[in-house]
Design a protein that fits this description.
With about 475 residues, the chain is α/β, with parallel strands linked by helices. The chain folds into 4 domains: about 120 residues, Rossmann fold, CATH 3.40.50.2300; about 160 residues, 3-Layer(aba) Sandwich (Rossmann fold), CATH 3.40.50.300; about 60 residues, Helicase, Ruva Protein, domain 3 (Orthogonal Bundle), CATH 1.10.8.60; about 50 residues, Arc Repressor Mutant, subunit A. It contains 17 helices and 16 strands. A 10-stranded parallel sheet has the order 7-6-3-1-2-9-10-13-8-14, with helices on both faces. A two-stranded antiparallel sheet has the order 4-5. A two-stranded antiparallel ribbon has the order 11-12. It is globular and about 65 Å long. Bound molecules: adenosine-5'-triphosphate and magnesium ion (MG). Adenosine-5'-triphosphate binds next to helix 6 and helix 14.
């Protein structure tokens, strides 16, 4: 990551300069009509909105960050929304269940999980407005969080400083940005920082292009006219419309269905789009930031990403270095994560000296996300205020000749290992969408869930044994 030459020198440590934070809302629902209506109300109240149409996608979202509020539908294509509540930090998030099929059992379960409300569809817009307003007011009244780093980003390595410079340089322009790097290295955080530093007046709207089917994504992105498909009872604007004058973050762009890539190309070329079932081209002013954890040129070469779309998305590329190439950042990050946990838990736990060495030397193949999860786990297991980091996971070995889309096994690999790697790679290929991965593998999504749970249990047992 070469740093631009003309920029003034940067300090090696960044003084916290928290921007005024918009409250954040996660909508977990596959009911496009409801999603659009709720998002529109929240947007008008200044919320930053993230939408997940499936449970697996929502789980990924809440593992990545906290939301001030989550609206969670119960009946999702890949499971029950209630299971998401296990992954939500209820102290930080107001979780509200929204359902079209209420029952005493789910209501009892919901309140047992500390949800703040259980709403039955159709929900009056005023009720939603009131909920959003209450949550925003409460968040503002809370004591300020511990000093935040620059746009929540921690780091002081050369690679990090160069990335920060790129963000600052590119943010004020309206150039499309493509952020690429390994999983968990901070691409979404960078996209948010670009938006926050851009001075754009509209919201940041994130959409995961790999997590929902092409048809649903088209309707979510472009919106639809009344009657354009069964269930389209009224006209709705899409994410593009919601992100007007703001930033549309297209995550996992290389997983977007080819037909949709063609539509998107049109938007980027002409600055206008058409709702599903519509006959008029509507102008839209939006900044596009996209991200992928694939090598973008390889994605083009393999036909996964249209070449013409790539050139339009990649007005400016931001390659993100993996954590193992960021010097002492791992320690700075671990300290920041522990400080955050200490502040939330009102504790003063500290890493053991061995843990500090381990944090510096471990390869962190899952990058910042893996480090954050490891710190969290070690904090929970801490005794006498001593936080002991677990032994690092070995780097996944990529076999000779293996690409992001192929798997190669050495003679003598066990069936169990082959199965584990096939499952992992297929999930990765389908952007962690278990339903699509299951269809490709000819098994059920439940089988995938069971295998993953088994792996997690094995890993936990290994930890306990060590
Ligand atoms: N520089 C950083 N400072 C503080 N936290 C960070 C930093 N980079 C990443 N994180 C945290 O690490 C986690 C993963 O980051 P993020 O979701 O942005 O990664 P990603 O590259 O988008 O991952 P994926 O490819 O899996 O989607 C998040 O919890 C994020 O807040
Ligand atoms: Mg991401």
């Amino acid at each position: 990551m070469a740093a631009p030459q003309s920029h003034p020198p940067m300090p090696s440590e960044f003084t916290p300069a928290p921007p005024l934070r918009s409250p954040s809302l996660l909508i977990v629902d596959d009911d496009v009509g409801f999603v659009h209506a709720a998002a529109e109300i929240a947007r008008l109240q200044g919320y930053e909105i993230t939408v997940a149409g499936e449970l697996a996608q929502a789980v990924n979202r809440v593992k990545q960050r906290d939301f001030d509020m989550a609206l969670v539908d119960l009946d999702l294509p890949d499971g029950c929304g209630l299971s998401l509540l296990r992954d939500v930090d209820m102290l930080r998030t107001d979780a509200v269940v929204v359902t079209g099929s209420p029952s005493v059992a789910t209501a009892v379960d919901s309140f047992r999980n500390s949800v703040v409300d259980y709403l039955v569809k159709p929900i009056a817009p005023d009720r939603l407005r009131e909920l959003f307003e209450d949550c925003a007011t409460r968040r503002r009244a809370e004591p300020p969080a511990p000093a935040r780093a620059w746009h929540d980003m921690v780091g002081a390595s050369d690679a990090f400083v160069a990335t920060r410079r790129m963000i600052e340089k590119v943010a004020p322009s309206d150039v499309s940005v493509l952020v690429h790097g390994e999983s968990g290295c901070g691409k979404e955080l960078i996209a948010r920082a670009i938006h926050a530093a851009s001075g754009r007046t509209g919201p940041f709207v994130a959409v995961n292009c790999g997590a929902v089917s092409g048809d649903l994504l088209a309707s979510q992105l472009f919106g639809h006219e009344k009657g354009s498909f069964t269930g389209a009872v009224s006209r709705h604007g899409g994410f593009l419309e919601q992100a007007a004058h703001g930033t549309l973050f297209l995550d996992e762009i290389s997983e977007m269905a080819p037909a949709l890539q063609t539509h998107l190309l049109r938007v980027l070329d002409f600055g206008c789009y058409r709702r599903l079932g519509g006959h008029v081209d509507l102008p839209v002013e939006v900044r596009i930031v996209s991200a992928t954890n694939r090598d973008p040129l390889q994605a083009v070469a393999s036909g996964r990403l249209r070449e013409d779309l790539y050139y339009r998305l990649c007005g400016f590329a931001i390659p993100v270095a993996p954590l193992r190439e960021r010097g002492d950042d791992a320690r700075l990050l671990a300290d920041a994560f522990l400080a955050d946990l200490n502040a939330r838990g009102n504790t003063q736990f500290a890493f053991t000296p061995e843990s500090r060495t381990l944090i510096r030397d471990a390869p962190w193949p899952g990058n910042v996300r893996e480090l954050r999860n490891a710190v969290q786990r070690a904090y929970i297991l801490a005794e006498d205020g001593q936080v002991r980091m677990p032994a690092p996971q070995p780097m996944p070995q990529r076999a000779v000749g293996e690409s992001s889309d192929t798997i190669t096994f050495a003679v003598g690999t066990t069936f169990e290992e082959m199965e584990r790697r096939i499952l992992r790679k297929t999930l990765q290929h389908f952007g962690n969408n278990r339903r699509r991965a299951a269809a490709a593998l000819g098994i059920t999504a439940r089988t995938i869930r069971n295998r993953l749970a088994r792996e997690r249990d094995c890993a936990a047992n290994e930890d306990d044994d060590s």
